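To: structure desk
From: M.T.
Subject: fold request, one chain
Message: Could you run this one when you get a chance? Sequence is below, nothing fancy, just the single chain.
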Amino acid sequence: MDTPAHPLFGTPPGGPDSPEGPPKCSAKSCRDLAAWSLRWNNPKLHTPDRRKTWLACDAHRDSLSQFLAVRGFLKETEPFSGPVPE
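Reply: Done. Structure tokens follow.
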């Protein structure tokens, strides 16, 4: 049985909009499972060894990679195989 959202506190943990569950693609409005890890950093904000991570499904790998690469942010692309690195 689903627990209804509380008017003051929103959807309970584990609901459809929660971050729980398998990792999903970072593309806007995409809910496909992550297949790729795009590791990047913004040299104006991050030290050279710092890496941020976007996850991508097969369909969005190229567009997300291109977005980061055009800005000089993309550092590595590798198959996603587990928890997102911090």
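Reply (cont.): Residues 24-86 form one domain. Let me know if you need anything else for the meeting.
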